[in-house]
Amino acid sequence: MELRIDNLTKTYPNGTQALKGVSLTLGQGMFGLLGPNGAGKSSLMRTLATLQEADSGSATLTTDDGDINVLTDKDAVRRTLGYLPQEFGVYPKVPAEEMLTHFAALKGLSNAKERKETVEYLLNMTNLWDARKKNLGGFSGGMRQRFGIAVALLGNPKLIIVDEPTAGLDPAERNRFHNVLAEVGEKSIVILSTHIVEDVSELCSNMAIINKGEILLQGDPQFAMESLRGSIWKKTIDKHALAEHQAKFHVISNRLVLGKTLIHVLSDAQPEEGFTSVEPDLEDVYFSTINASQETAA
Ligand code: ADP
Predict the structure, then answer these.
(1) Same-domain check for residues 190 and 263
(2) For 135, which DSSP code?
(3) Other beta carbons within 10 Å of 15
């Protein structure tokens, strides 16, 4: 199974260039598409989900059944696609099980016994079995997202696209959602678009960083972290000293910790007395990549 995206471009009628020649190759498993707000993630996801047209480029999905041209053969894509959009409406007064059964019928599961088994399987898998009689209107954000995944999984899709699924979820709900996704990733190509670095570090064996419509980095997150080993330095400073440090060093991130500011600096050698070396994490990869692209642009 493979999804190959080549040189995809998209400019909206107002002139915003959302995708500037995006090329990516994805295999089976969880693929993380990481980027800040406005990077072009949804534009790419909507294009792959056949909901909007690209201006140029190509996308091909290869499965055991052959090749599908994602941009032109929309019906074939839709038959094998599970899409969880950023926002989706639910009928608040309908119980989860009833709604899922209804969607299953719409998806072509016409055999009642098979339909019941599939609905039971998906409710269990998404950890919603105990809540199956509850109206969707009473679901928490996390439960709604898991219900969305159950709907997206109807019909055994080979390509699953989830667009910013964990935004707004509390840590426990995010955890539960991650567990569901990890299971889904075993059988299909899953693209997880997110601006949350932990979503990718906890789940994805392959990833890309996108910013301003361009792919800045693609590969194994582990490898990306290792390539920074020895180059990330930390120091805790007074928050008023941040600007001075930013002027002097290549500060890739800063965060307040107990009233002090913890900075991470990118440097081949110890920048100065007082800095200690840290094991790079994916956040360091993310911020150093995004910062480097902004400097090139400036
Ligand atoms: P992300 O999902 O990474 O936040 P988007 O793909 O939504 O990014 O947006 C990429 C860029 O395209 C942003 O500058 C955004 O404002 C712009 N954009 C998105 N959708 C539209 C649209 N329908 N019309 C015009 N501009 C859009």
Answers:
(1) no
(2) B
(3) 6
Task: Specify the pTM.
Answer: 0.92
Angstrom distance (rounded) from CA 228 to CA 289: 11
Q: How many domains does the chain have?
A: 2
pLDDT value of residue 298: 58
Closest CA to 27 of 263, 149, 185, 260: 185
Report the atom number in ligand 1 closest to the C-alpha of 35: 3
Q: What mean pLDDT, rounded, does the chain reach?
A: 93
* Ligand 1 pocket test, candidate residues 10, 22, 43, 286, most atoms within 8 A of CB: 43
- Residue 51, pLDDT > 90, answer yes
**Residue with structure tokens 């419509």?**
213
Mean pLDDT of 65-92: 91
Q: State how far the Cα of 244 lies from the Cα of 167, in Å rounded to an integer.
A: 33
Q: What is the pLDDT of residues 96-125, one digit of tens each?
A: 999 999 999 998 899 999 999 999 999 998
| 63 and 117 fall within a common domain | yes
Q: Based on the domain organization, do 58 and 27 belong to the same domain?
A: yes
Is 111 in the same domain as 207?
yes
Distance CA 161, CA 102 (A): 22
Would you say the CB of residue 121 lies under 6 angstroms from ligand 1? Answer: no
- CB-facing half-sphere around the CA of 280: CA atoms within 13 A: 24
Eight-state DSSP code of residue 95: B
Counting runs of H as helices and runs of E as strands, what totals does the chain give? 10, 14
Q: Write out the residue range of the structural domain in which residue 265 sits.
A: 226-297
Same domain membership, residue 247 and residue 212: no
Distance of CA 125 to the CA centre of its chain: 20
245 and 150 in a single domain? The answer is no
Give the C-alpha separation, 79 to 53, whole Å.
18
Residue 14 in contact with ligand 1 by CB distance below 6 A = yes
Bigger pLDDT: 181 or 159?
Answer: 159
207 and 241 share one domain: no
